[in-house]
Amino acid sequence: MAVQISPSILAADFARLADEAAAVPNADWLHVDVMDYHFVPNLTLGLPVVEALRKATSTPLDCHLMIADPDRWAPAYAEAGAGSVTIHAEAAKAPVRTLREIRSLGARAGLALSPATAVEPYEDLLGEIDMLLLMTVEPGFGGQKFLDIMLPKIRRSRALIERHGGRVWLQVDGGVDAETIGRCAEAGADVFVAGSAVYGAADPAAAIDALRATAIRQSG
Ligand SMILES: O=C(CO)[C@H](O)[C@H](O)COP(=O)(O)O
Ligand SMILES: [Co+2]
Hints:
Layout: E1 4-7, H1 17-22, E2 30-35, H2 47-56, E3 61-66, H3 70-79, E4 84-88, H4 95-104, E5 108-113, E6 131-135, H5 151-163, E7 169-173, H6 181-187, E8 191-194, H7 196-199, H8 204-218
Parallel strand pairs: 1-8, 2-3, 3-4, 4-5, 5-6, 6-7, 7-8
Helix pairs in contact: 3-4, 6-8
Bound molecules: ribulose-5-phosphate and cobalt (II) ion.
């Protein structure tokens, strides 16, 4: 398992996104939280900003769509140049079709599960995805406290992924910081989203190095 860090620009200065992307040259991805005021009670950014960011940075974009109609909109994010497009299982009406469309457009396809959504019903979809995203807070806002009750789900997801060949990345998102990342890594996560822990730090790049070192130390 290769550890990857995906800083969330939700915690960055939206007026200076190009500079904020440049501040994390050691990031594997830039996590872009798209919220539409319907799937979650918050509104962030959409396609025009993703298109602009794509031109402003060479770091691949990891788009996390917290929107009510991902079947309609997800392909456009792949077309806009996102390296990875993740849809929520709770929102998608035709997830298999949408995941296949994302892949056919050249992006990695991700499936996200909110805290109360069990992973087991999605076992048969593992062959359709490149990444499983487990929310470790309720989706909608940055800066929330990590939900420890998600650790068993991270372990169960890792076991399912290994049973299916170990190809799918396991991402955790929400409240991941210097204190919680080790437990997530030990439980089997390999891609770590961190918003406040990176952009709230005096030196975001140094924060990424420290998170990565802890995750590597704790990985099984
Ligand atoms: O998807 C998200 C919220 O819905 C964000 O990616 C997540 O909350 C990151 O922020 P932080 O690390 O501050 O919790
Ligand atoms: Co996110």
